[in-house]
Write a structure and sequence with these properties.
With 133 residues, the chain is an alpha/beta fold. It contains two helices and eight strands; from the N terminus they run E-H-E-E-E-E-H-E-E-E. The strands form two sheets. Strands 1-4-3-2 form a four-stranded mixed beta sheet, with helices on one face. A four-stranded mixed beta sheet has the order 5-8-7-6, with no helix packed on it.
Length: 133
């Protein structure tokens, strides 16, 4: 068994598509799902599905609700966190940062982490391994 894709419902597929393309994803399939638009994107070793919601409702805000249960974030390993944030800031202005870059020790590794939001507010972690060997 293996993961086929992760599906994200979005309010505006074009805004979401631009955001995920800036992260390194490429559209591989476009389709309609009933009355709405959808697509599969591949990149960073995975496949995402974007589906536009005809009548979107507000997205839950896990960073603002300590009692929230459910999807929390996707995490992407990056080579240089500062460079990625700068590039995304220029490409996706304004880039919404949920948690500014900081170091975090997890087990025997040290990471520089930041959280950003996609166009619908879904949280995405960017993680750079800065462990000194």
């Amino acid at each position: 068994m293996r993961i086929h894709h992760i599906s994200i419902l979005c309010a505006d597929i074009w805004h979401s598509l631009a955001f995920y393309e800036a992260l390194g994803f490429v559209v591989v399939t476009r389709f309609t799902a009933g009355i709405t638009l959808g697509c599969w994107l591949e990149g960073l070793g995975m496949r995402l599905e974007l589906i536009q919601v005809p009548s979107p409702q507000p997205t839950p805000r896990p960073f603002a609700d300590e009692g929230y249960v459910g999807y929390y974030h996707m995490s992407f390993a990056v080579e240089n966190l500062g460079e990625v944030l700068d590039t995304l800031g220029r490409t996706m202005a304004p880039l919404r940062i949920l948690l500014s870059p900081r170091e975090q020790v997890l087990g025997d590794r040290t990471y520089r982490v930041a959280f950003i939001a996609d166009p619908d507010g879904l949280s995405i972690e960017l993680l750079e391994d800065v462990t000194v060997c």
